[in-house]
Write a structure and sequence with these properties.
The chain is α/β, with parallel strands linked by helices. It has nine helices and eight strands. It has helices at residues 12-22, 45-53, 68-75, 104-114, 129-143, 148-151, 167-170, 175-181, 202-219; strands at 28-32, 36-38, 84-89, 92-93, 97-101, 162-165, 172-173, 192-194. Helix 4 (104-114) packs across helix 5 (129-143).
C-alpha cells in the first residue's frame, strides 16, 4: 500500500517495478527517476545488460593474496546469474537508475526492501530512506556474518546476484552533485545523466534538464 503512511513517495518505485515484473511481460525492468536523461542514442539498454550479465564474476572480489584464509573466502563468494545492475558512488547506492531482472531473487529482494525494518528507526523521515533501506537490504545479512576473512576485503559484500556497473555505463551525475559526492560528472559518451538533488533547486535544474534534452536531440 503506497499510501500506508510509512513509505515516502520516493519509495513508490519499489511498488512500480514489482507491478511491472508481476505482469510477466518483461525479462528486465529499468527504473529511471524523472530527473535522469538518456544521453547516448547509439547505446541500447540491452547492450548494458549484456555487458554486465555476460559473465558470472561476483561484484565483490577478494584481494589477490594467496593466503589460506583468502583462498577459503573465494569459496564463500558463489557465482550466480545477475538479477540486479546498480551503480555506486562515494556515498553508496544512488537508486535513481537501476535494472532488475524478472527472477525469484528479484521478487524476494523487492519484498524485503519494501518491508525493511529500519523504516521504523530515526531515519524513516529522511527523503532518501529508499536508498538507505535498499543498501541495508542488500548488505545487512552478509555484514552480520563478518569474520576476520571477510574483513580482509574491506569492501561491501554484495549478493552474488548483484552486478556493480561503472557510472558511465548506467548513471553519471550533473557537475554540482558530482563535485559534492566526489563522483563521476557526466562526460560525452556516458549513457545516462542523472540530476540527483535537483528537486531542491527547480529553476537552475530546469536549465540543466533543457540542456540535457538538447544534447540528446542534436545526436538523433
Amino acid at each position: 500500500d503506497v499510501k500506508d503512511g510509512v513509505h515516502k513517495a520516493f519509495f513508490w518505485k519499489v511498488n512500480a517495478v514489482k507491478n511491472v515484473l508481476d505482469s510477466g511481460a518483461y525479462d528486465w525492468a529499468l527504473w529511471m527517476d524523472c530527473d535522469a536523461f538518456f544521453m547516448d542514442p547509439t547505446r541500447s539498454i540491452d547492450s548494458v545488460i549484456a555487458m554486465y550479465t555476460g559473465n558470472m564474476t561476483a561484484a565483490t572480489r577478494p584481494p589477490p593474496v594467496a593466503e589460506p584464509a583468502l583462498l577459503d573466502l573465494r569459496e564463500r563468494l558463489p557465482s550466480a546469474e545477475a538479477s540486479l545492475i546498480i551503480a555506486v558512488d562515494s556515498t553508496g547506492i544512488n537508486n535513481g537508475v537501476w535494472m532488475l531482472r524478472n527472477t525469484p531473487w528479484s521478487h524476494d529482494f523487492l519484498s524485503r526492501w519494501w518491508h525493511s525494518d529500519i523504516l521504523q528507526g530515526p531515519g524513516k523521515e529522511h527523503n532518501c530512506s529508499d536508498q538507505s533501506t535498499m543498501l541495508h537490504t542488500l548488505l545487512h545479512d552478509r555484514v552480520m556474518q563478518l569474520d576476520e576473512a571477510w574483513d580482509a576485503i574491506e569492501a561491501p559484500i554484495w549478493p552474488p546476484e548483484v552486478r556493480v556497473a561503472a557510472q558511465e555505463h548506467l548513471q553519471s551525475f550533473h557537475q554540482a552533485t558530482a563535485e559534492t559526492a566526489l563522483s563521476r560528472a557526466w562526460e560525452e559518451g556516458d549513457f545516462i545523466k542523472h540530476h540527483p538533488g535537483c528537486h531542491y533547486y527547480r529553476l537552475p535544474c530546469q536549465f540543466l534538464y533543457d540542456e540535457a534534452e538538447g544534447i540528446f536531440r542534436n545526436k538523433v
